[in-house]
Amino acid sequence: MSPGTPKWARMFAAAAIVAGVLFGVSSALAASSAQVRVGSVPSLPARSAVVGGLSSRTQIPIIVALKPRAGLASYATDVATPGSANYHRYLTTAEFRQRFGATAAQISAVESSLRSHGLAPGAVTANGLQIPVSATAGEVAHAFSTSFERVKLASGRSAFANTRRPQFDASVATAILGVIGLDTLTQPHPLGNRVADPASGRLTANPHVVTGGPQPCSAAVSAAPGQYAYTADEIASAYKFSSLYGASDEGAGQTVALFELEPNLTTDISAYQSCYGTSATVDYIKEDGGAGSGAGEGEAALDIEDVIGLAPKATIDVYQAPNNNTGLIDNYTAIVDNDTAKVVSTSWGECESESGSIIINEEGTLFEQASTQGQSIFAAAGDDGSSDCQTSSLAVDDPASQPYVTGVGGTNMSAIGPPPTQKVWNQSSNGAGAGGGGVSISHTMPSYQSGAPSSLNVINSHSSGTQCGAPTGSYCREVPDVSADADPYTGYLIYYEGSWSGIGGTSAAAPLWAAFTALVNASSYCDGTPIGFANPVLYKAAATGYSSDFSDITSGNNDYTPDGYSGGLYPAGTAYDMASGLGTPIGSALPQALCSGGTGNTVTVTNPGNQTTTVGTSVSLQIHATDSASGQTLTYSATGLPAGLSISSSGLISGTPTTAGTSSVTVTAKDTTGASGSASFTWTVNATGTCKAAQLLKNPSFESGNVIWSATADVILDNSEAGGFEVAAEGTWFAWLDGYGTPHTDTLAQTVTAPAGCSNYTLTYYQHIDTSESSSSAVDTLKLQVLNSSGTVLSTLSTYSNLNAAKGYHKVTVNMSAYAGEKITLKWTGTETDTGGGTTDFTLDATGFNVS
Question: Using CB atoms within 10 A as the burial measure, which of 78, 265, 365, 691 is most buried?
């Protein structure tokens, strides 16, 4: 605006500018203040009462859960489904985050939004899907525009709950799955601790069962019948683990993760191991400070000792966290993100209707991640039968009902056999529990169930799509998938609080299946590839070889009348039923089916016999294998091949061996379902029949002048060119590196091929060093190095310096046998670094690389 503009005009313009600025600010604030509520308000449990507000100073650790990227469920299914192009293409946690975690931009935006509302976000989890926040109730209430109430539950426990759904900036709300930790109304509970009444009698005593696995001490054998319990050897015998033990498979190399929300006494575990003579490694990983101290209620001790007794050489990682929703999710997240355990067992859960959608959804994401990483998760199906909410309504437990978890139900095993005498666990008459099972209200039926053949009876008269709101013609997820002994009157003997105790529950059956899976993963059938999420191969194995792989439970039901339901659900029947799932494992047959993608295919590799070849002689050996199933494509691999040989995917071993010696070779053929077979043999590579003694270097004494060698300027000289300052060791020519008194580098090199099959490989040369350096440090150096054909330094054979100065030449000898059969370059590098005026001269002559 020009200086001559009237004052009123300038004031009007200024006002307009101010108004415009304010309008812009107002508009920006309006845009940024758009808020969206996420999730749901928890419902107060029956017979609970609000008793006031929650102190604003109460610390509330929460988790802001982020949505995964599209395609996760599809990949989690494909990677576990035999025949899929992605079958067993497991991801690492880092690969999972890159592919399915929230984007860096989304994480940054959510963190900025949280900070703008007064919260301090912690570091995002390794999977890129959770942001932890620790704040007071007042800070959380302000940030999410909610409030908190204190609640007294029917059990007498005090809890709190948010009164409104959490509120987020609209710009980030679409990236958020929900907030975990805003209420403490429900807690997972151990699905075990069912104990028989010793006054009712005794279990029939059994002698020691020689399984090849751990054997109990006399104290355990004596205590078991009076506790209505079996020892580990009896359990192993019933389910035919002996064939695995007989193949020297006790789970070595496998890690089993146990999910716990209570502590245990390490002295109990030590006493159990002392009795069985085991030395399993048991590590404790404490999340959110752990689960406290003490003996717990026996759940953790049961889980740990169950796995030790059945898979004694597996490593056991016990993850312990506080028993609240934040601890629950943090514990599962640690197990999955760490990805050190390919087998996971959880004996903790709660009724689906009590878990809440945010917990169920976030668990579901974690279990999908576990599937992509090749982790098998087994969860106890519950101990209150078909009405597992302890009400008169049909219900199932979370997480056993999760689609990417194997739910484990319970049986009564009155005799170990084998085969064992079993029926559905149901102790309605004395209130000692029943195996959980039924129809999910949270999940539709996954493809491994909906696609099962009619002969398995997965879809039956009790199937329904109503509870979970499945589309017309579809059904809801059914639980359990499998079963094992769980009745406390045919229970498991554990060492707890300093004495032997019998205990039951599906929380004993879940770690049994985990231990079995660790044995399977360690077996030769799996060839080092974990089976991962087990349900697709379990149902496929049942479809192709049910009677050989599973013991069918056809007697009993899980209608647990003490809970008030008496509708007779669910009855056992042929093949699958919602009282026992597919049944219990036959350990002598099921491992091969699980490792072969559930098909039971057999791959047989023809052993070519022991092989003998010679160094430097080309090899061509075709490996042959057959598959019991027609139309299968086999892919070959090998370990232990002699240096210089490799195997193609079609089974052709070819190449030229470079090193004499004997190798133990194993060739493996695998089909598209994952079934594999192997053959082992020895391969001896002899040295060549004759070794011609030779000196390999050309122009070794430099007498042909500056030829053959690769050298920097003025390195290869004769005595006259050196002016008498340096002279040859023999003849008149030699190599003179450095001697300039200023920073300088000289090199001298020659390439040779050392033949294979000789017994002597020796490099010799004469070297003279003189110096005028006064330094007590190695300021000028001469290095001899070996380089490959790409120029990469393989080794530094020697290093000399001004500190090695001496009168006259001396001989240097180097053993070069490590480079037999290789083309290498010998390179000397002289380096002067001192700028103080001193000089160092490195002279070489009469070189030789002799083989004989």
Answer: 365
CA-closest candidate to residue 322, choices 293, 298, 297: 293
Distance CA 95, CA 508 (A): 34
CA 86 – CA 79 distance, rounded (Å): 5
Q: Which residues fall within 8 angstroms of residue 815, CB to CB, at 6 or more apart?
A: 761, 762
Give bridge partners of residue 550 from the DSSP assignment.
585
Who's near 104: CB < 8 A, 6+ residues apart? Answer: none
Query: Do 480 and 409 meet the contact criterion of CB atoms below 8 Å apart?
Result: yes
Specify the DSSP element, H or E, that contains 74: helix 72-78
Q: Could you report the per-residue pLDDT of 182-211, keeping only the tens digit for each?
A: 999 998 988 866 677 766 666 666 666 778
Write out the H or E segment, with its range, that includes residue 710: strand 710-711
Inter-CA distances, 214 with 129, 134, 279, 280, 637, Å: 42, 46, 11, 11, 34
pLDDT of 8: 29
Q: Say if CB 63 and CB 132 are below 8 A apart.
A: yes
**CATH 2.40.128.20, domain 603-686, yes or no:** no
Which candidate, 413, 385, 380, 421, places its Cα nearest to that of 489? 413
For 776-806, write each residue's pLDDT tens digit: 888 999 999 999 988 899 999 999 998 999 8
- Judged by DSSP in three states, 12 sits in helix
Per-residue pLDDT tens digits for 479-524: 999 999 999 999 999 999 999 999 999 999 999 999 999 999 999 8
Helix or strand run (H / E) with residue 826:
strand 823-832
Mean pLDDT of 338-353: 96
Structure tokens at 778: 């190695």
Q: Within a 10 A sphere around the Cβ of 655, how many other Cβ atoms?
A: 15
H, E, C per residue of 189-243: EECCCECCCHHHCCCCCCCCCCCCCCCCCHHHHHHCHHHCEECHHHHHHHCCCHH
Class of 694-851 in CATH: mainly beta
Q: Could you report the per-residue pLDDT of 707-722, keeping only the tens digit for each? A: 899 999 999 999 888 8
3-state secondary structure of 394: coil
Average pLDDT of the chain to the nearest whole number: 91
- CATH class as words, domain 218-595: alpha beta
Q: Which 8-state DSSP code applies to residue 42?
A: P
| Sequence ranges of the domains in the chain | 37-67+102-180, 218-595, 603-686, 694-851
The helix (run of H) or strand (run of E) holding residue 113 is: helix 104-116
